[in-house]
Amino acid sequence: VKLVPQIQEHLSIAFWSTVVVILVAVPLGIALTRPRLRRAAPFVLAIANSGQAVPAYGLLILFLSWLGQGSRTVIWALVLYALLPVLRNTMVGLDNVDRAIIEAGRGMGMTKTPALLRIELPLAVPVIIAGVRVAMIINIGMATLAYLIGGGGLGVTIASGLKLQQDPVLIVGGSLVAIIALGFDWIGAVAERY
After folding, report:
1. End-to-end CA separation in angstroms for the chain
2. What is the pLDDT of residues 148-165, one digit of tens each?
3. Burial letters 137-153, b for 16+ CB under 10 A, else e
4. Residue 51 Cα to chain centre, angstroms
């Protein structure tokens, strides 16, 4: 009976952390591929990389000391943890767009912004979505640690199974996390294709 609210908490944490990652990383990736800010790209990527360099448990503890307990703290920790794949894929996707196509659009009278919106971003979308898929899977997996700082989620069931040495409980919790991750990965694959 308690599985339903735990699944809802888990999905909420993974969903909102991924939404915030997209809202931060995609515009930042676009900005860093523009000539004016290109020099700042290594510095920003180093900061984004630090989220992956710190163990997830340590990152949760850092955010706990800063923001207190609860799911909001977990969401912000996961945002930093999953920022790199979306940021890097946005930059790679935009950098790999053929310059000749962009120049053709500019030659037809497009200014920089319409060329970005009508040519560069549509061609980069599959690569960006691949980064979003990776971020979503990372967030679904890492959301199992949310219970450690009062964030809830399916980690509660998994931890209960470990403490009580109840293998069926452990298997149910782990299987649900895997099913959710595979389901969202499949949705991401469909979105990437279409």
Report:
1. 37
2. 888 888 888 888 888 888
3. bbbbbbbbbbbbbebbb
4. 12
